[in-house]
Design brief:
It comes from Anaerosacchariphilus polymeriproducens. By secondary structure, the protein is α+β, with helices and mostly antiparallel strands. It contains 8 helices and 14 strands. Strand 9 and strand 10 form a beta hairpin.
Length: 264
């Protein structure tokens, strides 16, 4: 019986000793503070925002009475990021939440990133469609003019010119203008020259040349006529040029207007 009492006393003592540490534990747990979301002290002007991929937007605070510096966070940076000023950059399609914090206060905005809408191609005018049709219709003539022109260049020890699709578009434009007005002229109907047309189509060049002709019925005939003319021959054989565009158009009476455009 004495042995039992001693054991009980020891156990009781341990419990009492252990119990003395409990106040410290409970006091420590009681020090945590709750985070207040969308309170009267911190609010965003928007709670939801939709952006297309690649776009940017800035979230603004409607209220900030915390007297603290705010910090911004994104829950999913792969979808959208946010900088220290609340500027959002949409990175990829998806959803994320942007959070602004100031001390124990915070506000949130749900972000949805969508695919960017595909840009519609501007419809071509009837004249532009006619240019495309002309290039297709006179494709053989175009390549024949290139062939005979390069034959003269090789004969004179010059490098061959390369046919350029953008310049061919300009040359076809010029031939159609002249065929429409039935006027062989380096001055365009609007009073400008071919240079204005080249620049309007965003074609870079350092030097530019134009040969025009009318009434010839074959590529060989027109190239030969150009070669027999000093000014036209100089354009055809110039070392300054490496590219060429060729255009052909027919009048209502069945006559052809021919154009060569040269650039470096």
């Amino acid at each position: 019986m004495k042995r039992f009492k001693r054991l009980f006393f020891v156990v009781l003592t341990l419990i009492l000793i252990t119990g003395t540490s409990l106040p410290d534990i409970t006091t420590y747990a009681a020090s945590t503070k709750k985070t207040v979301v969308n309170s009267r002290k911190l609010k965003l002007k928007k709670k939801t925002l939709s952006l297309t991929k690649g776009k940017k937007a800035t979230l603004k605070l409607a209220v900030n009475k915390t007297n603290r510096k705010v910090k911004w966070y994104s829950s999913k940076k792969s979808v959208a990021t946010v900088n220290s000023k609340g500027k959002i950059t949409a990175k990829a399609v998806g959803k994320t939440t942007i959070t602004v914090k100031a001390g124990r206060y915070k506000a949130k905005c749900k972000i949805t990133v969508k695919k960017a809408a595909k840009k519609k191609k501007a419809s071509k005018s009837s004249f532009e469609r006619k240019i495309d049709n002309n290039i297709d219709s006179y494709n053989n003539f175009i390549h024949d003019v290139l062939k005979y022109t390069n034959q003269y260049r090789v004969k004179n020890g010059k490098a061959k010119l390369k046919l350029n699709s953008n310049l061919t578009y300009i040359a076809s434009y010029r031939s159609l203008e002249m065929a429409k007005t039935n006027d062989l002229s380096h001055t365009r109907p609007n009073g400008t020259t071919v240079g204005s047309l080249v620049r309007a189509n965003n074609i870079d060049y350092r030097i530019l040349g134009e040969n025009i002709a009318c009434y010839q019925f074959t590529a060989k005939e027109v190239v030969n006529d150009w070669y027999q003319s000093t000014g036209h021959r100089e354009n055809m054989l110039s070392d300054s040029y490496s590219k060429i565009g060729v255009g052909i158009a027919k009048t209502k009476d069945g006559y052809y207007y021919w154009t060569q455009i040269f650039t470096n």
